[in-house]
Amino acid sequence: METKDKTFPLETLQLAQIAKAMSHPARVYILKKLSKMDSCCYSGDLADELPIGRSTISQHLKELKYAGLIQGEINPPFIKYCINRENWERAKIMLEDFFK
Fold this sequence. Notes:
100 residues, alpha+beta, 3 strands
């Protein structure tokens, strides 16, 4: 997870970045789907399930990847996405701590 603002503590910035990444229903759907999978998923498979365009899905995947919640594996001409398990666990801990 990348942060640039030095005004707030790093953990606060990271939590805000996670919250922003999860601020759209399509991204929540993608995260739920990927978190339940043992393997990676092609972006085209997601396009078949969601009622939005492929370019829009690509932008959502980019946001989730920027936040560090997912990772992509390029296998031209396709990209497979899966949950970044390490960052996913860290996000869960941060959100649980936030809601205490």
